[in-house]
Amino acid sequence: MLAFNSQVFNQKYGNFFIATHPNYKLEVISLKDFLSPDQNYYQSLENAIALEQPDVLSISMEHYAIFRERSKLRPLNHWMKRDGFDIEGITPAIIDSLQNEAGDLNGLSPVFTGSALYINKKMLAESGIPVPTDSLTWDQVFQLAQQVKPDNKQVRQYGLYTKYAANPYMMALYVGEGSGLHFFNHGNEHFTFDAPGWENVFQNIVDCFQAQVCYDNHSKASKRSMTREESEVRSYPFLAGNIALAVDDSALYRILTASKDRYNDLEWTVVPSPTSSQYPTTGNGIRMEEIFAIPAGAKHADDAWELVKYICGDDYGKLLPHINPDDLPAREATDEEGLAEVFYKLDHVNNNRINGLRRLPDPVLKKMEEVSASYIAHMLEQNMPVRDALHQMQHALQTAWDNSTNPG
């Protein structure tokens, strides 16, 4: 078994597996021991697999996608069918993300990190805005954020926060992905930033920052030592109470529900992560860092399946909230607050942003970093209309792609 940290893996999974499967021997290898400054994470992962030849892998969504594309993982379908393994209880978006077009599942995950829209009810009430009770589109989120009135308070107030607020370009890619957009068409090998959908996304973000409605990460002062609460607020600015809307992950939900005494002045609620009106059940509000898969060359594949089946099965799933309360169980559990269901609303996951970026050649990524910073600055400083800036950025990136893939 190859996991990032053997000790953590055994605490969460391994010890429970051995206790219920006494006839099995489980050896866990730590990937962190193979990490090296002279190679990237994926190269370290490949080296560890080649040297140790594990029967089971614990990998992230990105590495799962790479291994699946390169046919390095075994499909689990025949084992699932043979053993009557229940996937009906697993949230549909997870199955959709892990399944290929042929219906093959090459991995399973017992947990995930969700995303949602957190709402400061007091701030909306002060601005005379009704509190949303269901999912919103990204357009509606930006419109709502613009309606929040600062009221000249001593503490600067913001309408909207996202975790990509420090980089408006990456924020645009994130919002676009959540709206069902693709920035690159791998079929015809063309960038698509000049499409109307992207103009709308970038215009919303430019308007948000120009009006100082979007939270600016650069406004945070750094401190060498912080209390636990200060550290939490730095990681999750919504906790400070001066942000009306925040698109953030499920770890914030865990903090809010587990630390009521520390944040009892914060009147909040949560609704599903924003999507688009065209694809209301498709979004990018799910991440998985622990996908369990069986390598194509596994020597003990049947035994490996027993481990995967246990970790991702219903019996262990009932223990998960007690063993690992920080992550969300793939099989929806009972929630005392009654709000965690918002993380289970998606049916389909759009992961084209990370998968699209990793497929670009290094010269194109370098050009993207250069031109995105330049043209975002032009947009924010109103030196160039959004449409013109996107058109020029599109041309620069397409030229870089053509030169990289067809040199000479």
From TrEMBL:
SUPFAM superfamilies documented for this protein: Periplasmic binding protein-like II
Coiled coil: none
One Pfam family it belongs to: SBP_bac_1
Identification of the protein by name: Periplasmic component
InterPro entries reported for this sequence: Bact_solute-bd_prot1 (IPR050490), SBP (IPR006059)
UniProt superkingdom: Bacteria
PANTHER family: ARABINOSE-BINDING PROTEIN-RELATED, DIACETYLCHITOBIOSE BINDING PROTEIN DASA
